[in-house]
Amino acid sequence: MYTLRRWWDRHGLQVALVVLAISAAWAVRYTQASIIFEVFQGVTRPFQSSPTKEEQLDKARMLARDERLVELEKQNQKLQELIGYVSANKDKGIVAPIVGRSPDHWWQQVTLGRGSNDNIQEGHIVTGPGGLVGRIVSVTPHTSRVLLISDPSSRVGVTLSRTRHMGFMRGHGANRAVMEFFDKVPEVRKGDIVATSPVSELFPAGIPVGRVESVNLSKSPAPEAIIELSAPMNALEWVIVTPTKPPAPTDTPQQQPETDTPQQQPEDDPQTSNEN
Question: Which of 197, 194, 213 shows the shortest CA–CA distance to 205?
């Protein structure tokens, strides 16, 4: 014990300094030197003058300008992507911003900042980067409402591009949909591309819809597939609205309802009056 005490009296100060240096180095690395900055701020605060009200306002304005610049750059990028999409699209469409979206109906519908004053009508097709988005279901002079294909109440006649097997698709939320086949044993596999059906009366044929994510051939009463929608419904800010083809003239005075009958075109649910 006496020997240990003599050793401590001789080397204790050096050991304490080494331990203190190691602890300080660890603290600096762990806190990324923030503790040193806080100590420096605390020591020098009495010698610093408080920022004036005008300086605080100038700083706030600079921050607001920086944030606005970042937002404008993001919008410019989105617009460039949209311009490229419109240029590649053969049909003339109306560019419309998404101005309204309810958290309770995030996957069901959106509101566009274009309406009847911009020649938008009910039944017009809405597409965006990736493919089909939905269909116009109501219009005001300055706005219009879109029923998204991810809405569970939507019905879209679709076909597999690889095998041409047909069916109808209903929304499933979260950028997913369910395709129900008409054939009992369809030739389908994961990754197959899904597009609008060529026998649909409500949608032009060949609009990309999504890809097959999984298949359930044992599903009753008909085989089903989960479809991952190609248009990112949760990230859309701009869309393209295009008119549908005018219906062929009929000799009967009454206009036929805008649905496909099961006998002529089996893609639509006979219990619904809209195919999205």
Answer: 197
